[in-house]
Design goal:
The chain is mainly alpha-helical. The protein has five helices and two strands; from the N terminus they run αααββαα. α1 crosses α5 and α3 packs antiparallel against α4. It starts with a helix and ends in a 9-residue tail after the last helix.
């Protein structure tokens, strides 16, 4: 595990920072800057995911994940984000650009809650002293779940921020 420990420490810090940042935004912090702040949070956690994706496969001894307990109840987080993002929570996404041909409805609040749940699951392993299991979970769920939801949310958040910056009324100058 010693070879994996620095990566586990880094991903655990990234996961904790994301969870704390998203919880603060869902709790009402951020004001009018919620969307750009979420863009930053999602971008940073996807960078952590990319590091997992660029790493060798993490393989558990016996290929068995020890139990970590019940999944967290993230209904309050999801509801707080949905309220904060009421005007832009729903968007369309092509889930798999190589297999799907039409957009399907997504919600930013659901995507961010899904990413949070997967990060918490891995963080439970890490906090129990099972860093290799944490890395295995984060890597596996990055490829299988939270990377997809994070990527979709990133595109939607980026579009919102880009539209806010670029879609300005054309100024008319007197001739």
């Amino acid at each position: 595990m010693s070879d994996w420990q620095p990566l586990a420490d880094q991903i655990a810090k990234n996961a904790k920072d994301f969870i704390d940042g998203v919880a603060a935004l869902a709790g009402g912090e951020g004001g009018d800057e919620a969307v750009p702040l979420l863009l930053l949070e999602v971008s940073q956690i996807l960078l952590a995911g990319a590091k997992l994706g660029a790493s060798s496969d993490v393989i558990l001894s016996g290929n068995v994940e020890p139990p970590v307990g019940a999944d967290p109840d993230l209904d309050a987080l999801r509801a707080g984000l949905a309220a904060k993002l009421a005007s832009c929570d729903e968007y369309a996404e092509v889930f798999d650009p190589y297999a799907d041909t039409r957009g399907i409805p997504f919600r930013l609040s659901d995507d961010i809650a899904a990413v949070t749940a997967d990060l918490i699951h891995g963080l439970k392993h890490y906090q129990a002293g099972r860093s290799l299991e944490a890395l295995w979970w984060w890597q596996y769920s990055y490829f299988n779940h939270w990377g997809t939801h994070g990527g979709a949310a990133l595109r939607a958040l980026h579009a919102l921020v880009a539209h806010a910056s670029l879609d300005v009324a054309e100024e008319r100058t007197p001739l």
